[in-house]
Write a structure and sequence with these properties.
The protein is of the alpha/beta class. It contains eight helices and ten strands. Helices cover 35% and strands 27% of the residues.
Amino acid sequence: MEKAIEFHHVYYTDGPTEIIRGLSGSIAKGKITTLVGPSGAGKTTLFRLCNGLISPTKGDILIEGKSIQSYEPTLLRRKIGLALQSATMLSGTVFKNLSLPKEIIGERLTKDEANTLLSSVSLKPSLLKKNVKELSGGERQKLSIARTLINRPKILLLDEITSSLDRISKQEIEELIVRINKEFNVTIIWITHNLRQATQIGDEAWVMMNGELLESGNSNLLFNPQTEQVRRFVKGEFQ
């Protein structure tokens, strides 16, 4: 298995609180790995460690075989894209929001590039001049993903991106992510509280609790966990 990300005895402490506790494991390159576990398990903190927003207290993280400490932060965040549940937008047009990643590095987004990006996430080019306030929740999330794809990331981190969407929009985003994974050959790590989503969309699954990785492997492990803690968690979520 080729590895996109490797964690070697990673700890992260915030004041007196140990949030990540000696976590070791690897994320398969080119696959969709879902990250599940109860609130407070450390999932979002792990994402923040992956794109350099925070640094491990102890241990090391390798991105495509290279220590995260050796990456220049801007280059790291271009390699690792991040889309959040909130899909935060600037006030203004769709084009203005889509242009942001280019502007940050002193470049300009052309209209042709913008049209291609919108098409890649199944949005119509006619939306470019529309104010983001007029977009539906699903459209905003697709725009957020398109904006993340501008830098052609090798790894895409998705944090609960469908939790506030209706059933149809949720299904559209799921189909979009599967397509992006295949067409762009992007490694995807998706935090979700929806275990049905995790088993249907994910190739692999990680189960985290109390800052530790308890089980990992093929997403079918969620149907037959090996540890009592994970069995109880899965039973509660699937009921």
